[in-house]
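Hi V.,

Quick status before I head out on leave. The structure for the redesign project is tokenized and pasted below; the design run finished overnight.
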């Protein structure tokens, strides 16, 4: 009863009812604890004198990552009763990988909420982080059952074509190598920089086709950077359509002064 009263108050009378009404179509209900949902969109770079920046969304992101992985695994386990472990693992990876979550966050319009509650320039990775943090916030507010319904109904069914993913090959590095071999060209990868970003090691990798740099990408994992750079290279070369998103900066622009 108390939570119901809080939700009614947040929807109609709270000074920040505008935020509550933004969340309602996004998550399917008006939050009772609005602070935890605002926290989901608060980046750690926020100035410490802001009330909502006393913490940031990293802990929610950690929780949401675990909950999301479990829900997706359960969803796939039920959806594909005859599939083996290898297939299920690959499908889960395709859904919860960073690039997919970034695109989901963009389609959900989370960049607008991040702009309101994060005092920093937006990057694509922040969108995926916010998706995980939002899942964590829903879990804390409503528990596992409601979070599973949110993930399946509001995320998977709206923004993920699971059947398309069955035949989708997201190994861009392998695809680029195969294309180069067919066209009598060589492909190699060069580590352009290794630097600190958000207190973690980050790798900037360049794709070289016939010793000419075609594309670069940054990631916290070198292999992931090579995959992203390969995807960009395939777009540059016209092998696949450009799927770039607007409105947020690419990760490789985050650092301009790498050595």
């Amino acid at each position: 009863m108390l939570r119901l009263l809080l939700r009614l108050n947040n929807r109609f009378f709270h000074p920040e009812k505008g935020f509550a009404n933004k969340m309602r179509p996004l998550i399917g209900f008006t939050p009772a604890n609005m602070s935890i949902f605002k926290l989901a969109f608060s980046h750690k770079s926020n100035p410490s004198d802001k009330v909502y920046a006393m913490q940031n969304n990293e802990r929610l992101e950690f929780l949401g990552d675990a909950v999301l992985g479990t829900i997706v695994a359960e969803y796939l386990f039920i959806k594909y009763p005859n599939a083996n472990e290898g297939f299920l693992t690959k499908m889960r990876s395709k859904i919860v990988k960073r690039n997919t979550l970034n695109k989901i966050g963009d389609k959900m319009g989370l960049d607008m909420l991040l702009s309101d509650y994060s005092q920093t320039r937006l990057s694509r990775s922040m969108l995926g982080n916010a998706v995980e943090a939002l899942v964590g916030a829903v879990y804390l507010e409503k528990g596992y059952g409601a979070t599973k319904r949110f993930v399946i109904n509001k995320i998977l069914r709206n923004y993920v074509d699971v059947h398309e993913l069955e035949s989708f090959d997201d190994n861009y590095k392998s695809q680029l190598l195969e294309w180069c071999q067919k066209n009598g060209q060589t492909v190699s990868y060069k580590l352009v920089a290794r630097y600190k970003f958000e207190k973690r090691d980050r790798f900037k990798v360049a794709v070289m086709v016939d010793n000419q740099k075609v594309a670069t990408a940054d990631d916290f994992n070198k292999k992931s950077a090579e995959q992203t750079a390969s995807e960009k290279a395939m777009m540059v070369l016209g092998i696949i359509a450009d799927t770039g998103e607007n409105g947020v900066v690419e990760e490789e622009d985050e650092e301009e002064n790498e050595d």
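Above is the designed sequence. The beta strands are 187-197, 200-209, 212-219.

G. will cover questions while I'm gone.

Best,
W.
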